[in-house]
Here is the input.
Amino acid sequence: MDVPVPSSRRTRAMLAVGASTVLLTACFVGVLALVRGEIAGFGDRLPIYAVAMGVAFVGALLRAEQRYGPDAPGPGAADGGGFGGGAILTTALGVAVATVVLVSFAGEGVVYAVQSPGEVLTSTLLLYFVAAGLIATGLGYWGLRHWREFATGPS
Here is the structure.
């Protein structure tokens, strides 16, 4: 029996869902570590999280400027279209804050899982975190695809 080869789009989607689920599961474990007070050494890891935030800020700023800045192709390009600089800066700042929160919680979750594997890996709690990660991934995907409906209000 021939098994159909998944398309590259489906493969990318599966990889994105898998990566997002792993990231969010690690974040939930990080929240558990925070609640249990098991985040010793956080101050030593904080500079790494800050660098991740900086990289995300610059990357989001450059990407948003390319796609939505005054020189962006598309409707409104003739009249200097796109969004204003303030909206682009706000978007980049939002991405940076979300990145530092996710990376911090995920980093602390990985550290906690490595330092206390018996507390995380052998409990059914991990399965609940994986399920929550999958649900959060689905909600995030849906939210990114439909955010304009909420930003503009009912039509």
Remarks:
- The radius of gyration is 19 Å.
